[in-house]
Each structure stands twice: as C-alpha cells, then as structure tokens.
Fold this protein.
Amino acid sequence: MDRHDLIIIGGGPAGLAAALAARENGIEDILILERDVRLGGILNQCIHNGFGLHTFKEELTGPEYAERYAKRVIEAGIPYKLNTICADISPDREVTYVNAEEGCVTVKAGAVILAMGCRERPRGALGLPGFRQAGVYTAGTAQRLMNIEGYLVGKEVVILGSGDIGLIMARRMTLEGAKVKVVAELMPYSGGLKRNIVQCLDDFNIPLRLSHTVTRVHGKERVEGVTISEVGPDRRPIPGTEEFYSCDTLLLSCGLLPENELSKSAGVRLSRITGGAEVNESLETSVPGVFSCGNVLHVHDLVDYVSEEASRAGKNAAAFIKAGGVRERGRVITLKGEGGVRYTVPQTIDPANMEDKLTVRFRVGDVYKGKSLAVYYNGVEVRRVRKRVMAPGEMEELVIMKSSLPENTDEIIIRVED
C-alpha cells in the first residue's frame, strides 16, 4: 500500500490553504484529492466580487480568489488528482479513492485533512407539496448552470430562502434579464449577509417576504406558479394568507449542510448543531490525525475565514506528522454556547497544545440588538463585549488568550446577555 504523509480531501479554498500551510511547515509528501475538473471548488462558479478583502486586502471574484491559491499550490509542486472521488476513509487513516486512470486505490496517510465543503438542502428535505416538475433548482445548481454551463434556467423566478446564494442568484438572474418576483423566507430574519440583502435585493427592488414560505408548487410538467403563505411563530402556514405568484422557476436557498459522509466512515464524532466534526484547539477531530476545516466543519459566511481556518489545520497537521503521530494530551477545557449562542468551534481546548491566541467562532440563533457577549470561566464572568447587532447570517468570533486561562479552568461558556 502506498503512503503519503498528508492527504487532503477537497481541492477548494480550504484544501488549498491547508496544503500550502502544511508545506510551509515542513511537510513535503502531500496529496490533494479533488472530484471536480479543476482546483478551486465552489469558487469557480461564484463570479461575483466581494472575496479576498481580508486575505488579499482587495476585492476579487470567486475564480480570481481560487486562482491565486491554485497557482501557489502548483508553483509549490504539491501533487493533486482531479476527477477523483474519495470513496472511504477508515479510522486508521486509510483513504480509498476512485478515478478513471487508476481505478480504485487505497493509500495510507500519516494525517488526513477533511475539506469537502458543504451541500445545499434539497427539495426532498423540505417537504414541498406538488409534482416533481421541471423548473425547481437549488440556488447553487442554478448558479453553476448559468455561470459555468451558460444556461438561463428561467425567466420568471421565485426564490425560497434568503441564504447568501439565493440572494446572489436573485441579482444574477435579474442581470441576465429574468424577472425575480419575490424572495420568501420562513424565518423572521434573513439568513444572508446584510450587504447581500442591500446589493442583491434592495438595489433591484426585489421584495423580501419574511415569515413566509411556499405551500404549493403549481404545474405538472413545468412549474407554472407557486402559492406563498405567511407563517406564525410556530413556523406553520396561517390559513387565509395565501398568495399566488406565476413563475416558471423556483430556486431553493434553504440552508447548507456540511458534507460529512466520509467523516462518518472514519468514525469522526459530529456536532448535532453544525453537522460538522467536533474539534479541539488544533482543529483535530475525535479520530487522532484527522483534521477538519472550512465549510465541512461549519458553514462560514466569508471565504477569507475558511482560508484562515484551513491554514491552522494545515499547520497543526504538520505538527502531528512531525511528532510521529503521537501528541500528549493534557487537561481538557470544554467550550459551550448558551443563551443564544448556538455552538462554538472548537468545542474543546487543551491549553498545553494551544497557541498564545485562539480564535473561537460561532453563530447566534436569533437577531440581537444592543446585547453583549459574556464569557465565563467555571461560572465566573471574565469578559463582556457589547455588540450593536448580531444575526444568524453572520458569524461571530472571540479571541481567547492562553495567558488568561487559570490553572483550574475546565469549562468556558459564551452567552448572549443584556
């Protein structure tokens, strides 16, 4: 069986950044496995700008951002395989992949970095009533068909869900001549970034109906229209509030799910909140030597944060490999989100292995205005940060200093408070 020091599953922004960080930290034997025909992942279809403001201090399109990382990987001579599907990862880090040239191959890895990204919630998971007619797409599928394949998927459009991809596709389809009738959102707040609501909906006079959902899709062979109803606090449609919109296309932007089937086969413990792996301060999962980063770990709002997180994973995987796969673990501090904080990444910290500064990222479960983030060590408040606005669509972060952790700390809680 062939062996590589480091195998990275996924050649998108997370996988590329992790590979470069591992190479910069002394790991030469690296292999990237990517299922698409080119490096760059989902960014290749994201032709709008707004990427790279944190990483490169300039505004780039998705393909431009991806190309900068792909070019660095190629210049560094890091091997990668395209059109290659990773079929299985065993708990002892044996990776099985399949492609047309080699067939089915199993290789051993000194460490594995999971960087598979996420997928969209499909129609079948939403329980939409109606026939399985043409004209219903997830927003990301429509984005690929338009931006890479060159097809206009519809001329009269309704969008269900106000995630960032749905908002961006509202603008994109408008620019291509389609009429976007309405964006309906089940929750009383948008799931996307504020800037996307302004630039993609407000600037084009596209209405956003909060606390509304699609209750019927009309048409048998092709979508002919949809019925939208208001929902109450229990998220159930309110009788008598139905409105009909004629359309030939329904786009679904109803959430993203970390792509963790491979993680399960490796025995990785997953968070029931994020759907991604539970990780420690090194972004190492419950399986030693298997690390996770990017949208397969938890769904990010900015790709710049994906690259930053993936670089940490690459650096820590390199340390694991150079230590011969043996790392001493000290005491474990548990991180928890409560009182409006839905989760934290990481979920545990070992002070002996953490760097001087650790960035903890999380999302809140509702829109909060004029509230504070309070941090507790063993029930004692140690920090309070006032926030003007917090919303589920935008990721929050706090920095924990190693020097601030008392010897007896075994639990850190982050809460939303007045």
Q: What stands out?
A: The mean pLDDT is 95. Residues 46 and 62 are 5 Å apart (CA to CA).
